[in-house]
Amino acid sequence: MAEDHVPCDSNDHASNMKGGNDSLVVCFGEMLIDFVPTVAKVSLAEAPAFKKAPGGAPANVAVGISKLGGSSAFMGKVGDDEFGYMLSDVLKQYNVDNSGVRFDSTARTALAFVTLKDDGEREFLFYRHPSADMLLQESELDINLLEQARIFHYGSISLISEPCRSSQFAAMRIAKKSGSILSYDPNLRLALWPSAEAAREGIMGIWDQADVIKISEEEITFLTGCDDHNDDKVVLDNLFHPNLKLLIVTEGSKGCRYYTKEFKGRVPGVKVKPVDTTGAGRCFCWWDIEQPSF
């Protein structure tokens, strides 16, 4: 859909894709409180109690990059409440620049209940109708921070509703014009979208703006409508756009495969005993962003 594209002249994107800061990664999107059961492998209804933890994919990436010794910042909105200030403080504790965080007095910080059930399936329950992260205004963007970004990283959850949707478009446009590398992790959460079709259109609507994209096998199936997510032709024909520098497909315990214009390959996984795969994609994402090869 035309309205889903960020209006940007490709000539504005500097050929060497450098920003005002050669190392800063600015992560845009949601930051929330995850509530996880105090015991493993139960449904949300069966959980005897929950413990809170900072969450939100873009915020997780920002913290992960800082843990690796990189320079990162988070840009988004939380509630003017105890949870919102707690999250902002957590960023600071991990040396993540929180100058791009805004506080909303009209909405609460988003909450998510998440568990890994005994059958291996994850179960999510979100409270955000609306939550503060959905209400970020374009006028609240820290333009100076965006212009400093070497890499601008984002997902698709901020695309679900206005005004945050337009704010993400504007942030992408500013970062790209400043020469930032655009990094996209769709992070499909179908339950948050009005419909599967809306999710597909929203996610693909900004697909051709990204320089780097990280997706899962499940997301390939959802976005392409093809059952064989291992088929290179399916991936390349449907998901590799002309301006893309790197497409990474995570394969769980098997590792990942990657595609560029010149070559493709696979990296095997490291064998570990999994406890909970929730957030594994974000961990992969911040490692990949911190180790750019271009």
Properties at a glance:
294 residues, alpha/beta, four-stranded mixed beta sheet, globular, disordered N terminus
* Rounded mean pLDDT score: 88
Taking pLDDT < 50 over at least 5 consecutive residues as the criterion, the unreliable ranges are: 1-20, 279-284
The value of Rg in angstroms is 18 Å
Number of strands: 13
Largest sheet, in brief, is: 9 strands, mixed
Strand arrangement in the largest pleated sheet:
5-4-1-8-9-10-11-12-13
Instruction: State the helix count.
Output: 8
User: Would you tell me the structural class of the helices and strands?
Assistant: alpha/beta
Helix content: 25-40%
Tertiary shape:
globular
- Rounded to the nearest angstrom, the distance between the terminal CA atoms is 30 Å
Order of SSEs, N→C? EEEHEHEEEHEHEHEHHEEEH
What share of the residues does DSSP label as strand, in percent? Answer: 25-35%
GO molecular function, one term: ATP binding
Family: Belongs to the carbohydrate kinase PfkB family.
Keywords: ATP-binding, Carbohydrate metabolism, Kinase, Nucleotide-binding, Transferase
Protein name: fructokinase
